[in-house]
Sequence to fold (158 residues):
Amino acid sequence: MVMGLINANPVVHEKKERRTREAPENKDENAVEPIDQLEIFDHIRDIKDPEHPYSLEELKVVTEDSVEISDDLSHVRVTFTPTVEHCSMATIIGLCLRVKLMRSLPPRYKVDIRVAPGSHATELAVNKQLNDKERVAAALENSNLLDIVEECLSPTLG
Fold:
């Protein structure tokens, strides 16, 4: 996707086995089902890295432990770790995470996306950009950025 790879040889990890969820006891189809950490992780684990043919989970950019959720407060925070400290794709990765969760969660949820502390050279700037509604909206109006996001979010076969 990108010429001149920032991290030409990333460490690729094995994907965790998917766990199945138990069906809720309550059969009321109008009942609100709580959302948990695993459900959020399942939404984001297969997002493709914009630079490599691997998922964010395989590159350990996101893990189940990097997801925090308060269903009562309708708040989700995902803290991701770029593969290198000077990753130029950090804002794209964060944008992919935000878009995926915006599309997957009920609108009542507030989503915070953060770079793990100390994991990126411009951590504060990236965090500010990823959590500024106007900047996110402007980024999604850019057809080139939107194409990259859509490519990262597109399902893979296999």
Observations:
- Residues 134 and 140 are 10 Å apart (CA to CA).
